[in-house]
Design goal:
It is built from eleven helices and 16 strands. The chain is α+β, with helices and mostly antiparallel strands and 413 residues long. The structure holds glyoxylic acid and manganese (II) ion (2 copies).
């Protein structure tokens, strides 16, 4: 294993221990463990010779400036928030490969035709507010101000969190203006089984599937679990449960082009001897075909309405976020493909079912992504694993890609 890979693994392991829970890795946005991980990333970027700033949402951005003052920004990044009970590779791997790239590029900074930015994005998972890409949308300049009023399970809003250290009015100041972007690159674990099946360490990414995130609430009536006759109840949970099975049924019926998940559920009053009066749950639904996705969301909405009417429940359907499918840039992906071929790997181009920060950035700049093999395709799970050898390939491919970009963009300066 070379020195860069060893350093990256040491740091990845260190970040993997920074958690809000003693039992598992859990690093929701703007929590103490999140802040601690951000401080470390800031330190490592500074040590790599970058000029580092933290913006009002918590993005940590390190810049290695080109000597050409007209140069544009090329951004390499990923996220440092995590889901609950996470694996340690999802997010941090891409940031740490970025830091290795900066260490490599520092030696050759004189020849850099663009400002190399390494960014640790604040909130990609959206686990705390059920809304993803808070960080990348600030850098891309498309942060939706309506998100500010979103509240977490404790009633704390995004606005309150931002205003602890900064000011929401300053959000636009932290964007890279659209005409100053050159491109974006993210290294991420595949989170699926294809590379393992192909016995290949890395590949480029074709694009990212579209995704809708919804919050759905069912309202019935609380009652005594011992005295309320079964046929006279308005059990909000039973309505939600019937709907969750419909979600699975629709997902299975269209499994070639759709995935749909109810992953979060809150019951009120959540007490064993009380009939649930209110249930709020998430719906995460994804497809590469936006029209089809819209159709499926409409169909599910009709099914939910029918269930609610039949069970005399009230339902509230809230589309929290809707992201279209995005494509990776053909020209940048060709430069990445050349970098992959140069280490003797046959080029493969996969579609990402998982969401990534590039979704927001694709609105203003061309994006590229490199996937690194995940053992058994497992992710969002502590069993997530990517081997040191594969990480070494990812670093080498990224260095070769940087060299290709330096040549391609250097010619034009
Ligand atoms: C992020 O991991 C997502 O795809 O939801
Ligand atoms: Mn991720
Ligand atoms: Mn994730």
């Amino acid at each position: 294993m070379n020195q860069a890979t060893q350093r990256l693994l040491d740091r990845l392991n260190q970040l993997g221990t920074i958690s809000n829970s003693p039992d598992c890795l859990s690093r929701y946005y703007a929590t103490p463990a999140f802040e601690k991980a951000g401080d470390l990333l800031n330190e490592w970027m500074t040590e790599a010779g970058l000029i580092v700033t933290k913006d009002c949402v918590g993005n940590i951005r390190g810049i290695l400036h080109s000597q050409n003052s007209d140069a544009k920004h090329f951004v390499v990044g990923s996220h440092y928030d995590s889901v609950h009970n996470a694996g340690k590779y999802d997010g941090p791997l891409g940031i740490l490969v970025g830091i290795e790239l900066a260490i490599y590029a520092k030696e050759k900074a004189n020849a850099l035709p663009f400002h190399l930015n390494i960014v640790a994005f604040a909130d990609e998972e959206g686990a705390r507010f059920n809304t993803s890409y808070l960080g990348s949308s600030v850098l891309a300049g498309n942060f939706n101000l309506e998100w500010l009023d979103r509240k977490d399970d404790d009633g704390i809003s995004i606005k309150e969190l931002i205003e602890k250290e900064g000011n929401v009015a300053s959000i636009p100041n932290y964007a890279i203006p659209a005409d100053e972007w050159l491109g974006y690159y993210e290294v991420h674990i595949e989170q699926g089984p294809v590379l393992e099946d192909k016995n290949q360490s890395v590949c480029s990414v074709k694009g990212i599937a579209g995704q809708d995130r919804l919050t759905i609430s069912w309202e019935g009536m609380a009652g005594h679990a011992g005295t309320s006759p079964m046929d006279l109840r308005k059990d909000a949970y039973c309505g939600a449960a019937e709907f969750a099975l419909k979600v699975e049924e629709v997902g299975l019926k269209h499994k070639e082009k759709l995935v749909a998940t109810v992953g979060k559920l809150n019951l009120f009053p959540n007490t064993s001897n009380v009939i649930p009066a209110k249930v709020t749950h998430s719906l995460d639904i994804r497809s590469a075909d936006k029209q089809f996705l819209n159709q499926m969301v409409d169909d599910l909405n009709k099914m939910a309405t029918e269930i609610a009417e039949r069970r005399a429940l009230k339902i509230n359907w809230d589309l929290v976020q809707s992201n279209p499918p995005v494509a990776c840039d053909i020209r940048l992906t060709q430069a990445l493909t050349n970098a992959i071929s140069s280490i003797g790997i046959e080029p493969t181009n996969l579609l990402s079912g998982a969401g990534h920060d590039g979704v927001m950035i694709a609105e203003v700049a061309p994006i590229t992504m490199l996937f690194v093999r995940s053992r058994a395709g497992i992710s969002h799970n502590p069993l997530e694993y990517t081997s040191p050898e594969d990480i070494q390939d990812a670093i080498q491919v990224s260095i070769n890609y940087l060299e290709n970009l330096t040549l391609a963009f250097g010619d034009k300066e």
